[in-house]
Write a structure and sequence with these properties.
alpha/beta; Rossmann fold
Length: 251
């Protein structure tokens, strides 16, 4: 049964468009994930194939999952110019509005998680720093060549970074440098590299194939480990809020 539906909710700059997979009829306490797409200034949308793969991994692991279009993308209201003026504020504003909406929709959810691809992973990590309810993250192809991750000081929760070895946009050497220089504190953060994969997980050795299935399998394996070891009602230290300083797929 197809449980994915189109939704709209109020954001900072107007209504935000999303696709929601809702499993509460089977599990009222199901964990909930938010998925964020790549740079809207470069054609990124919630229907990007990598973003959809992240969405599918959470969906197939029994999550409520929401993927959204940032303001100015698709049917989300607002202007793309906001990202030219302040990409962090615009992206985090939309992601936070989505988290607020999810908390109202799923008040009994057991855990909240954020997954993001490229620019969406950068916004996702900013959101992790601001939202204490987030239990873990999955960050795919973080844009460490063009964006700084120094704000993770320290990273407050565990998570998974997955990076393509042949990424032509976020260079592998920059990813390795970022992971070495980032303060992860006491968080258990895994880093996984997929060989021969480009930024969009195409196969650099065989352009007619892709590494999306491998990405999917790595995420599902990690998510299932987290689900198997989670505490039903975690007691967590109160986290201080940080001060401010492609294509379409059928569900």
């Amino acid at each position: 049964m197809n449980q994915t539906k189109s939704v709209h909710f109020k954001g900072v700059s107007g209504m935000i468009e999303g696709k929601l997979h809702d499993v509460t009829s089977q599990d009222p306490n199901a964990p909930t994930a938010l998925v964020l797409h790549p740079d809207p200034l470069h054609g990124g949308s919630m229907n990007n194939k990598v973003s959809y793969t992240i969405f599918k991994a959470f969906r197939d692991c029994g999550f409520n999952v929401l993927r959204i279009n940032f303001r100015g993308v698709g049917n989300s209201q607002g202007s793309l110019k906001d990202f030219e003026q302040n990409a962090e504020k615009s992206g985090v504003g939309d992601a936070s509005a989505a988290m607020n909406w999810l908390k109202k929709e799923f008040p009994s959810t057991s855990h909240y998680v954020i997954g993001g691809f490229s620019f969406g992973s950068w916004i996702g990590m900013h959101t992790v720093m601001r939202r204490p309810e987030v239990e873990f993250f999955i960050s795919v192809a973080p844009p460490c060549t063009t964006r700084s991750f120094s704000f993770l000081d320290p990273c407050p929760v565990s998570g998974l970074f997955v990076h393509p070895a042949a990424d032509e946009i976020a260079k592998l050497e920059d990813f390795i440098k970022m992971t070495k220089e980032t303060n992860f504190g006491t968080a258990n953060v895994d880093c996984d590299i997929i060989q021969d994969a480009t930024h969009f997980f195409d196969n650099v050795k065989n352009p007619s194939s892709s590494h999306l299935d491998e990405l999917y399998e790595k995420m599902v394996a990690y998510i299932n480990i987290k689900l198997a070891t989670r505490i039903e009602k975690p007691i967590r230290k109160k986290r201080r809020r940080r001060k401010k300083k492609d294509e379409d797929f059928d569900d």
